[in-house]
Amino acid sequence: MTLENTAVSNQLNELLAQVKETTEYFLGYPVSKDFDYSELMPFLQYPMNNLGDPFVKSTYKVDSRQMEREVVHFFAELFRADQDNVWGYVTNGGSEGNLYGLYVARELYPNAMVYFSEATHYSIQKNVTLLNMEYVIVRSQENGEIDYSDLKEAVRYNRHRPVVVVANVGTTMTEAKDNIATIKELVGEMAIEKHYIHADAALAGGFAPFVTPRPSFDFVDGCDSISVSGHKFIGSPMPSGVVVVKKDNRDRIAKKIAYIGSSDATITGSRNGHSPLFLWYAIKKLGVDGFAKRTAHSLQVAAYTEKRLNEIGVKAWRNPNAITVVFPSPSDDVRSKWQLATEKGNSHIICMPNVTTTQIDEFVADVLVSS
Ligand SMILES: *Cc1c(COP(=O)(O)O)cnc(C)c1O
């Protein structure tokens, strides 16, 4: 081995050790890490690329479009979409799915006003700015859920314009869920025909279908598109996501794009051909039962976390059926060790499927020692 090669291996080993160690203490971000994709490693030898529309054949054939379509249909079914009116694709993550949903909304209603709550993920503000859409930020309730009366007030004020609402199906900090049936009703009461509801279900889209009572978040409840992350509840070595939209809405955009001489249907040009394969593999291995089991485990650990923290005098709470436990921020040491995100004096633990009660016990012991 040359000296240079040794330096490269050393650097790689160092990074690997660091990644291993930081993954060990990881409670503050919604990322599952309990996956084994070793069967897929041979595919990393190939330049897979799903460029363009997954539902249209391409001359570039080193792809996983078949799997991508199955992934889209799997989520479409979980989200109770009309199977005859579904389109979607595997994205680079929840943010791209949000961008796509808003893009569809803007093409349908260029003059729309966009409404979303102050607890909304930062990708929405970025996306409406990119799309040059006007927006109103609506107040949130204490638990992070949108304030429906404030939303109603804001919509009434702009009632001459089409309405686009971005509903949070699990906010980033408290996992609060905006009720889509309530939002739909509110817009209907004001007789605003031109409206579009996009559901940002980056984290909770992976388990909301398995929670009882089922949150009001899907196509039957009244949304027009849903974005979910693939690397969050499912878990994947690289970021990914799925966006599901109504095919007839998408077709109206596709026509528009044909008009400018392009049949490109997604946001980016080249698209990751491996991530659909990883999601497909996870879906096949888990099955619907596996998703339900993961959900039950997360809910159980979340209840345990809330209880243990309260037992030591930390005022922890969570939204109904949330896997996110919120509490006043612990010391800097604890926050840094467990990689806890902090906002307005609060931190949270997200009980992803890989989080165990043993880890929670260790965390609680750390909080006790440092307080
Ligand atoms: C994580 C998250 C996003 C962004 O998803 P990415 O997959 O990181 O792009 C958007 N909205 C919410 C509510 C999230 O939790």
Strand percentage, roughly? Answer: 5-15%
Q: What distance separates the N and C termini? A: 51 Å
Give the cofactors and ligands.
pyridoxal-5'-phosphate
Number of domains: 2
| CATH superfamily caption of the largest domain | Type I PLP-dependent aspartate aminotransferase-like (Major domain)
Shape: globular
The CATH architecture of the largest domain would be 3-Layer(aba) Sandwich
Order of helices and strands: HHEHEHEHEHEEEHHEHEEH
**Spatial strand arrangement across the major sheet:** 1-7-6-5-4-2-3
> What is the fold named in CATH at topology level of the largest domain?
Aspartate Aminotransferase, domain 2
Low-confidence stretches: none
Structural class: alpha/beta
Count of DSSP strands? 10
Average residue-wise pLDDT: 94
Describe it.
This protein has 371 residues and is α/β, with parallel strands linked by helices. The protein contains ten helices and ten strands. 44% of the residues are buried. Helix 2 (65-78) runs parallel beside helix 8 and helix 3 (94-108) crosses helix 4. It has two domains: 3-36 and 287-370, Aspartate Aminotransferase, domain 1, CATH 3.90.1150.10; 42-283, Aspartate Aminotransferase, domain 2 (3-Layer(aba) Sandwich), CATH 3.40.640.10. The site of pyridoxal-5'-phosphate has 15 residues, from helix 3.
